[in-house]
Amino acid sequence: MVDIAQVTTVAALRQAVAAWRNAGQRVALVPTMGALHKGHLSLVELARSRADRIVVSIFVNPTQFAPNEDFARYPRVLEQDTAQLAGASADLVYAPPVEVMYPDGFATTVSLGGPATAGLDDVVRPTHFAGVATVVSKLFIQAMPDVAVFGEKDYQQLKVITRMVHDLDLPVEIVPAPTLRESDGLALSSRNRYLSTEERALAPAISRVLIESARRLRAGEPVATVAAEGRQTLAAEGFEVDYLEARHADTLASVSGTAEGPLRLLAAARLGRTRLIDNMAV
Fold first, then answer.
1. Does 180 count as an annotated binding residue?
2. Domains of the chain, start order
3. Which of 12, 106, 138, 274 has the most CB atoms in a 10 Å sphere around its CB?
4. SS3 232
5. Tens-place pLDDT, residues 132-171
């Protein structure tokens, strides 16, 4: 028997959180779309170091998928996820159905600028971050956590959420968690299960190219040259490249040289039907 509570309504979530708050406990939220792996569990571990109680939300958010994306086939394995979270000592699973998050007549979204319009994932997925920001803002209002943990693998998302919390004065501390990787360097992702055997063998090239590009940038090579040659290398390896760019690590603004501030390399590329994203500090 899985020893972890699970709720599906806002009222039940708030009742649980209120009891913890009345006991003087800090609450952390780890938002996920389920299909959990070791990377997600590391977020729970980090949350445990920052709070007394951990809520993990599991919700495959339809508003962040474009019509041609993988919403219908995105893996949904709630029972397995719940068992993993019990083993990771999370306290509560919040798994609302779509009609709880988006009831009839729902008509409000979050409007974004800054990192959400940086010319990276927002070019390929123009409605994505509005969907992310809307659902995350709802989760924050529903759970009222002290802390929320987000992985650095989705780096643009992390910066979008961080900006939103700052701009809207939301009383939530955003804690970034380092990217976990397989032994060959591939960043852990729920979508890795889509890769064929041949594609899985090719996939680590994206992290190798980022490592080499970061090394070259630290050595003083031109940003535009390094990024262009990184894209060419990935294309030669069989990737369909959406982008590989060096950007300011905080704002995601374009840069022309390494002297313009801390840099972050960000990449997104497809192997077959699977879209992979990764990033690396310079």
1. yes
2. 5-177 (3.40.50.620), 190-281 (3.30.1300.10)
3. 138
4. helix
5. 999 999 999 999 999 999 999 999 999 999 999 999 999 9
Is 37 annotated in a binding site? The answer is yes
Locate 228 and state its tokens.
Answer: 């262009």
Partner residues linked to 270 by β-bridges: 240, 275
CB 181 within 8 A of CB 187: yes
pLDDT in tens, 67-93: 888 899 899 999 999 999 999 999 999
> At residue 192, what are phi and psi to the nearest 5 degrees?
-60, -25
Give the CA dihedral 230, 235, 238, 239, nearest 10 degrees. 80
| β-sheet bridge partners, residue 93 | 6, 56
The catalytic residues are: 40
Alpha helix segments (H runs only) across the chain: 10-22, 38-48, 78-87, 98-101, 121-124, 128-143, 155-167, 197-202, 205-218, 223-236
Report the percent of the chain where pLDDT is more than 70: 99
Could you tell me whether strands 274-281 and 5-7 are parallel, antiparallel, or unpaired per DSSP bridges? unpaired
